[in-house]
């Protein structure tokens, strides 16, 4: 490389570093001068190693030490003490560093590691945006995990599918024994300003707790937002003691009597039936409330979550 | 699948809760429409739950990589077959749709393009490490490669990216000069 080419490349790299805004470009430039030849050799070695790997060579022996090792045409004795130190430091960093590039100790950074650090920062920032972490997202994921537990461990047909009647299809009943109210409740309730769920507690189902939350369905319209607000208000003021559990169970039993096909695993437990019946009754009342207000009830759904023990019941 | 004890169930539940946000981001960055991520996450969690007992003695890093391995298989299947929608995933789908995305850094387009131009074997490695935060060892497990191959491949990918971005920087300068 000629002096002019070298100066040109250095200037270009200097600009790149400055544009990244992470490093003192003058300081990096000084260090580059001392070690750029070394960097080039290492990169050449990497390329050669990659090519030999793809050609089916015995690349299993390529360790982190090999990664930075001296090429065979260069004996260790010919390496200056400064470069040997760089080798050791860089090898340590590569062996121990966080691969996302956030190397902690700046004092031990060689120029190539600094270059890596800047590139790593760029790469990390290049990740496409995703849904921000919110209380609502957390709650929804908790629901999903709990439902996974129920689906992963169940032997029976999913109770919600027994509610396949048109009026009840939107009711999503979940976790059964998987429920751990203590793990979810902090995310719920009117006191949570970001929540779109309202908690309704009941002790009707054999002393366990069933929690019902309203969640939106696929719709980003104003109508859906209005439906959510109306549903939240309804649930916030709804008195579950007003539900006649026995009547709800009868209604539920009748509604589901004809839906138990040959693949049904058998009857639900009494507790399970109570939880489902209360949920169905709650949804029916919510549906009536929304329809009375001229709101499409299909814009929202109700999901229940409970900590009832179904295992030993008939 | 063996029956999990109550403690194991609680531990598994917590593990999935901790892992699910990162897995959701993993899918969101790789599927279009983005909210398909909801169904893929749901499927991944279910597979993990059914097979979790085999990981009981594993270190957390290995377990995490195992989750990404499942996710990669689910993603691969998703690209071949019609998606299976699940009711609760619809709630998550709705959450994704109704929550504004974090603002995109428009300047990162060139970097993303450079990553997308890498050979597939390097591209996914870079994404796993820099977008999903996996270590090289974890990425090796997800990709089914040995660690030394992944390290070598990663070095080459970084070199390619560095060259590509330098070239892009030069190109932009030339445009500005004219």
Automatic annotation (TrEMBL), chain A:
State where composition is biased (Polar residues). 51-64
Query: Superkingdom, according to UniProt?
Result: Bacteria
Q: Which residues cross the membrane?
A: 162-185
Protein name, as recorded = DUF5667 domain-containing protein
Q: Does the keyword Transmembrane helix apply?
A: yes
Q: Which UniProt keywords apply?
A: Membrane, Transmembrane, Transmembrane helix
Annotated stretches, region: Disordered? 51-84
Q: Which organism is it from?
A: Nocardioides potassii
From TrEMBL, chain B:
What region holds the RNA polymerase sigma-70 region domain?
Answer: 17-85
Among Pfam families, the record links this protein to: Sigma70_r2, Sigma70_r4_2
Keywords per UniProt: DNA-binding, Sigma factor, Transcription, Transcription regulation
Q: Is-annotated flag, keyword DNA-binding?
A: yes
InterPro entries, per database record: RNA_pol_sigma-70-like (IPR039425), RNA_pol_sigma-70_dom (IPR014284), RNA_pol_sigma70_r2 (IPR007627), RNA_pol_sigma70_r4_t2 (IPR013249), RNA_pol_sigma_r2 (IPR013325), RNA_pol_sigma_r3/r4-like (IPR013324), WH-like_DNA-bd_sf (IPR036388)
Q: Which residues form the RNA polymerase sigma factor 70 region 4 type domain?
A: 110-161
**Family, per the entry?**
Belongs to the sigma-70 factor family. ECF subfamily.
Q: What is this protein called?
A: Sigma-70 family RNA polymerase sigma factor
Query: What is the species of this protein?
Result: Nocardioides potassii
